[in-house]
Amino acid sequence: MLNVELKYNLRGCPTSQSSLCNQKLSIYVLHVEKELVGVDLNPLTTTLTYQKVETIVPKVLPSPRELKEYDYDSKIITEKGGVYLAFLDRGACVSLSRVIVSYNYCSEIGSVLVRFSRTAAPVNDSYLEEQTGRCTDVNSINKVKLSGVCLSSGEWNITAGIKCLCKPGYQLVNGSDENVLECSGKNCILLLLIKIIVVKDYGAQSLRALGT
Fold first, then answer.
1. pTM of the entire structure?
2. What is the C-alpha to C-alpha distance for residues 204 and 212, in angstroms, rounded to an integer?
3. Where are the alpha helices (DSSP H) in the chain?
4. Superfamily (CATH H level) for 105-184
């Protein structure tokens, strides 16, 4: 979901030209999977299909010939990987002074040897999707499901206590980077070679016999 913030100036229509002048501004959106190069993006002439988001009409219109500044906020639910926005006026004396497009996301985050990737936040918490974390060290394994959800506020809700464990033969240590843990050690097996010497006890009488 995209947050769209506008700041624009609108001049009131002259009384003598009220039939030719309007005081409306329309927003259109084109959903795309990738950037379009060499394509006509003008919503009035293109063959592409724009969707109308809204027509903006100020609650309090400016007086004739008066120039007035307005703020506008809206939300657009995205359907593909990217969007093109078009602002269209038909006879209005309007100018855009600021356009801010933003969206909420959950930052990359982790716990003990676990990492969750940066994830775009949903429209609201009714559209939550479970995200799966990953172990950050090749010498670590997980014995529990690494699950969490990205909330619409841009915050993570991660199952408490989840972590990855170092494989046998490795131990958890501070890594070369600050605040990073890693598994260190040699994955080796200690072999003990035991030589068994069997000594026969012939007894004292036998030893005397052997000594004679």
1. 0.62
2. 13
3. 203-211
4. ephrin a2 ectodomain (2.60.40.1770)
